[in-house]
Amino acid sequence: MGPLGFSVDQLMELAGLSVATAVAEVYKLSEHTRVLIICGPGNNGGDGLVAARHLYHFGYKPFVCYPKRTAKPLYSGLVTQLESLAIPFVPVEDLPQDLSGQYDIVIDAMFGFSFHGAPRPPFDDLIQMLVSLSVIGDSAKRPPIVSVDIPSGWHVEEGDVSGGGIKPDMLVSLTAPKLCAKKFTGPHHFLGGRFVPPPISSKYGLELPPYPGTSMCVRIGKVPSVDISSLRENYISPELLETQVMPNPFDQFRTWFDEAVTAGLREPNAMALTTVNKAGKPSSRMVLLKGVDKQGFVWYTNYGSQKAHDLSENSNAALLFYWNEMNRQL
């Protein structure tokens, strides 16, 4: 146990959870299901084993390559945990030379900041496998590479000295970014390991960003730009026939609204209200539904609001309820 009272297994659990949450934040389960985690013999590999467990519970399908197992109880316990979940362990010799066809994400958890020297077999070949993967120009045709703390084979301060090392798409720095993180050029840089007490931050001059809400990771740097058209999702839902709808629209709305409440949606009474004044100028804003009966809808506002003014001139309005989790809008 260290001077702050943290044990190695505690820190490893926090680190692995941070990696898993960062991966889940960027690489959605609907498109990136199969995750290969390549683990080294030390603490970095232990972080990878923990991340594999959490990714499993997040709904992903992890596969673990752990060629040099450590006999210490901490590591054997992590292996037992994964085996109890029937998470496959893949021997190095069974890995395809091109990982693109079998995995949607590859996590590099081989070596951390304490590694020195040249990688030995089989990790030298594994690193080269990831190097070959990272040089594929079209990122849409290959699985993204996620490196834990530092990319394996990089110098902890100088980075990719040879220029021929792994070029990860995501780097999850742990506790605090290492100097080599300045050389990272990928689109996603996260900080994980939410445990550093203020006295330690002050002692070492660490200016760590605040973590949002209850998250175990925080993005560092600018959010990468995206192709807006690529954000479109495919909405597949059963066809709604006229014969399936209640004759009274208010009764039907109440039924659907009760379903949204039962499903646990946050603020299912939030709706977009669109009005038009006498000059024909439209106005939309979000309001909260207060009640509904056969007379109509009532929402929270005041008589001096823009909405009230518009409705006094034109009583026609449009309401839109959008319940994304239920793939439904009214």
UniProtKB/TrEMBL annotation:
Gene3D superfamilies per record: Electron Transport, Fmn-binding Protein, Chain A, YjeF N-terminal domain
SUPFAM superfamilies: FMN-binding split barrel (SSF50475), YjeF N-terminal domain-like (SSF64153)
Catalytic activity: (6R)-NADPHX = (6S)-NADPHX; (6R)-NADHX = (6S)-NADHX
Keywords for the protein's UniProt record, in alphabetical order: Isomerase, Lipoprotein, Metal-binding, NAD, NADP, Nucleotide-binding, Potassium
InterPro entries named among the record's database cross-references: Pyridox_Oxase_N (IPR011576), Split_barrel_FMN-bd (IPR012349), YjeF_N_dom (IPR004443), YjeF_N_dom_sf (IPR036652), YJEFN_prot_NAXE-like (IPR032976)
GO MF term set: metal ion binding; NAD(P)HX epimerase activity; nucleotide binding
EC code(s) of this entry: 5.1.99.6
Entry's Gene Ontology cellular component terms: mitochondrion
Residues annotated as domain YjeF N-terminal: 1-208
Record flagged with keyword NADP: yes
UniProt enzyme class: isomerase
Xref: NCBIfam families: yjeF_nterm
Protein name, as recorded: NAD(P)H-hydrate epimerase
Organism for this UniProt entry: Triticum urartu
